[in-house]
Amino acid sequence: MTGSVHLLGLSKVRRGIVATVVIFVCLNTARNWPQLRAEPLWRFLAQPAFDIVQWIGVALFIFAVIERRQASAPQSRLVALPLATLSISSLGLSLSSLRLLFQSLLNGERYGEVWLSNMPDDFFTGVFYVAIVTGIGYGLYSWAADEQGRAEAAELEVAIARAELKATAGRLQPDLINVALGRISAVMPVGGAQAQQLIADLGELLHYLLLHPPSALVTLGEELDYVDRFLRFQKAILPGLVDYAITASEETRARRIPNLAVHALVQQAMSQSTHSRIDISITAMTDGDGVKVSVSERILHVAGEPLPELAVDFRDVHDRLRRFCGDDFDLRIVPHSGGAEWRVELALPAA
Fold this sequence. Notes:
The protein is built from twelve helices and seven strands. The chain is of the alpha+beta class. Strand 4 and strand 5 form a beta hairpin. Helix 8 packs antiparallel against helix 9. The protein is elongated.
């Protein structure tokens, strides 16, 4: 959770450490007010200032040790407890000795005499204060780690939302929407009811695309029902250019397949419909535990016009199926009848 970000590098963590130390030193100074109020002002201010600087450094050091320790492998208690005791005691002794050195310099006294006269009381006080700062450090670490975890979770949610939005935008099929809106605008002046029906059908198609991500599994029946709505809508917006038939048994329709697998084939077939009359036939059957789907397309010859050339490019379809199904599928393309007809067979394993 915090491996990529050093919590000590966050300004809010450093502010929390500094504020805690300042409050701690101020409270400690207030506790010793009766002994300090007789001192000169400069000496009265020097001691708390030294304590603040010293304990800020100690707190930052302790927090860094805590953060490093939390990122390391767990230690045995038989090892961790003696090490913690030794570390706190050593740090308490060092801090007490450093503070007594500053105090001796401040008062013009001999360091050795000051040190001996204040030990071991100052040592116990130093250890106690180190333990308090360590506890505060663990509290700040838990708070900072939790805050950072929330921030990273929020960033992850935003990234997921952006990815879903991008995937949704890709599923909305802008070419289909453009053609549909063009057809709706064309029939609106003369056929209001037909335009309303086209809007309703378009809404159903888009609702299905938004409700079922490509990675989802659906029954073949659900997929064929969506393809049926899709082709009926195509017949409505491209009158006279599209005919189709769908054949599948109830047993076959109950099998589960990756969403939009059949639609990917039909959509490629529909790429011919903007300039030619086409007849599409979809047949689905069981194949062991899997499913075999056959999609045939025939370009119909219009009298007096040259036979259109069928240009089929399944590279995009193959890429889409790989995203939906991985590599566990078989896609075969069978062109015939002089290039005006083709059949594609898609075999999918049991899902």
